[in-house]
UniProtKB/TrEMBL annotation:
Protein name: PBSX family phage terminase large subunit
Region (Disordered): 422-465
PANTHER family given in the database record: PBSX PHAGE TERMINASE LARGE SUBUNIT, PTHR39184
Organism listed in the record: Paenibacillus lycopersici
Top-level division of the source organism's lineage: Bacteria
Bias type Basic residues, positions: 454-465
Residue ranges annotated for the Phage terminase large subunit N-terminal domain, each copy included: 20-224
Classification via Pfam families: Terminase_3 (PF04466)
Basic and acidic residues bias spans: 436-453
């Protein structure tokens, strides 16, 4: 196999290419050619090692086709060996024709298929977890990691490669691989400077961020962990918006709202008090539910005593599906869940949600002490909306819109957006007590002391009225 690797792959990834440790962890900024380099490695090394097979995994299986599958096809063409490979979409796989070795594709949304992988020729020894940031729980990764097992023939080794943009610094990949030294892992941080084929215009676009948005440049330009600037809901504060659960009065209205896809069912139960203030008190945040199963899950989580008034859902659930001729809304209805079509104006919807989140000052009725509150609050058990709402980003092209990536962050906020767009924003309570001035506080203190003195004299018979 005559391939000039330096010309095909370029610079910046030499140690990554040579690593044989159990884990290769590759985080990088935008345009750092990390996915393309990984794809080139797999095509080249499957051909080099006749018994090796690989599996490529993303959080949601159906996202592979337009990402990992497409880039592996590109890599085969880049290496001028495309004629030796057969790429099929049903099943989704890549087969090296001379030997029958395969690259398989899976998703974390199908746990059974991801932990029971077999191959016809050779052994499964390598795995590529693309966009590992989308994998929420380290436990899910560990379960998958355990499926890469068994003895290896001479010349082969077990290896799991993780590649991703580092986005939020609270992700488990940081504590697992970068905050602590793992002798079984090689870790890499790559940037646009590794990509010698990046054109000048794209290079300037990234480098301009160092001046205009240093926080975003840290992630996009330098490949470091952290929120990349431009978080959309700057109004959100856990001290204001997150509260401990309480018993909801029976006379409050209750609603459900959902964002549905096979990749995620994000559903929320919301109580509205007599003044119109909203309390998000329960959530379902689960993947891989077909429509009937999603309806069943909503019913399982709803008590008969809750008396749900309306269930809001996005308009696309009313589109008819080619396979059944029915819309998702009809299938929900057939499973005893009636949906109400919510508005789907993105920008206005996000602005509505920002208004609901906007903190304002009020005063404690008992003490007169100033405190911050908001028109919508979240029970502390709604962990995913509390996690994702402050993490979604502004869209680069339209800062009035929310970025659609990372996609995993958008499901919960989308659902809450539908609710806020359908409900009238409550006014600040008009009867809230006014915070006393310093002079009034002094006078109140004097009056209090005087009242105590008169009461004391009265008990001693010194005060007659």
């Amino acid at each position: 196999m005559e391939i000039n690797l330096p010309d095909m792959v370029g610079r910046g990834y030499g140690s990554f290419w040579r690593s044989k440790k159990r884990y290769r962890v590759l985080k990088g900024g935008r345009a750092s050619k990390k996915s393309r380099t990984v794809a080139l490695w797999y095509i080249y090394n499957i051909m080099k090692h006749p018994q090796a097979n690989a599996v490529v995994v993303r959080n949601t299986f159906n996202t592979n086709k337009d990402s990992t599958y497409a880039v592996l096809k590109w890599a085969a063409r880049r290496l001028e060996v495309f004629h030796l490979w057969k790429f099929t979409e049903s099943p989704l796989e890549a087969k090296y024709l001379p030997t029958g070795q395969k690259i398989l594709f899976r998703g974390f949304d199908d746990p059974l298929k991801i932990t029971s992988i077999t191959v016809d020729v050779g052994v499964l020894c390598w795995a590529w977890v693309e966009e590992a940031f989308e994998i929420e729980k380290e436990e899910e990764f560990r379960t998958f990691d355990e499926s890469i097992r068994g003895e290896m023939p001479d010349g082969l080794w077990k290896q799991v490669t993780l590649s991703y943009n580092p986005w939020i610094d609270s992700h488990w990949t940081k504590s697992r691989f970068f905050d602590n030294t793992d002798p079984d892992a090689d870790t890499y941080t790559t940037t646009y400077k590794c990509n010698e084929w990046l054109d000048d215009a794209d290079r300037r676009l990234i480098e301009d961020l160092e001046r205009t948005n240093p926080a975003r440049y840290k992630v996009v330009g330098l490949g470091e962990y952290g929120l990349p600037g431009g978080t959309y809901f700057e109004e959100f504060s856990e001290s204001v918006h997150v509260i401990q659960p309480f018993v909801i009065p029976d006379d409050w209205q209750r609603f459900r709202v959902l964002d549905y896809g096979l990749d995620m069912l994000a559903a929320y139960w919301i109580a509205v008090d007599m003044q119109g203030f909203a309390y998000v008190y329960k959530e379902v945040y689960e993947s891989d539910h077909i429509i009937s199963a999603a309806a069943k899950r909503l019913k399982e989580m709803t008590l008969p005593s809750e008396r749900i008034k309306l269930t809001y859902a996005p308009p696309d659930l009313w589109n008819r599906r080619q396979d059944t001729g029915k819309s998702a809304a009809e299938i929900f209805q057939n499973n005893d869940v009636t949906l109400i079509k919510a508005g789907n104006e993105r920008i206005q919807g996000w602005l509505n949600l920002k208004e609901w989140l906007a903190p304002y000052e009020t005063f404690d009725e008992q003490t007169g002490e100033a405190k911050k509150t908001a028109r919508i609050k979240f029970f502390s058990n709604c962990k995913n909306i509390i996690r994702t709402l402050p993490a979604v980003l502004k869209d680069e092209k339209d800062p009035n819109d929310v970025a659609t990536e990372p996609h995993e962050l958008t499901h919960g906020p989308d659902a809450i957006r539908y609710f806020c767009g359908m409900r009238t924003l409550p006014s600040k309570p008009s009867g809230a007590p006014r915070h006393p001035t310093k002079e009034e506080q002094v006078q109140q203190h004097i009056d209090k002391l005087d009242k105590q003195a008169r009461s004391k004299r009265k008990r001693k018979g010194e005060y007659a009225g």
